[in-house]
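sorry for the late reply, my laptop died twice this morning and i had to redo everyting from scratch. anyway the thing you sent over, i finally got around to it. pasting the sequence first so we're on the same page, its 173 residues, then the predicted structure underneath. double check i copied it right bc i was rushing
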Amino acid sequence: MKKILVFLGILLLVTGCSLTTKNEEKKFNIDGYGTFSISNNYMIREDHSTREKPFFVDKRDEHSERPNNISANGGTNFYSIDQELEFKEAIQRQMAMQAKAYKAVLTSSGGTTDNGYPVLRFNLEASSQKTVQFYVMGDHKYFLVHATIFDLKEEDSVIEAAEYIANSFTWEE
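ok and here's the structure:
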């Protein structure tokens, strides 16, 4: 177990995503964007993660072929932090096309993270799976937390973990 943790720490440092452990959570840094925390119940899925976009699964789903998963990444856009409505409409247009293709229902809402940043939430629900995306807004940038849920019995816990990431996120200065 100790060797695995050392390997994970080295891998994260080399890839630009760093990890620190605090009691019941792990803290990650995405270079150029900021830091976030995730529950110790989740582990990084190395075979699907990249430097810019780590994927996490519940430790109980480690060997599942189709685990519920959460990814996190940053990106840039044309919208200032004051253009929340315009950004929401742009994302909603893209997701509406996906909803139509998969015969899914799209809903959205907005609010503020625990750290005071505007956050947009999009839910895309089909008969056999659900996607929930949290966009934490910055000035001409965003931090996206994307949860994909295949086992709908675990929906609440996966969404709670994804929301925790979004709420814990802090932009780099």
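The chain is about 25% helix and 40% strand.
thats about all i looked at so far, will dig more tmrw
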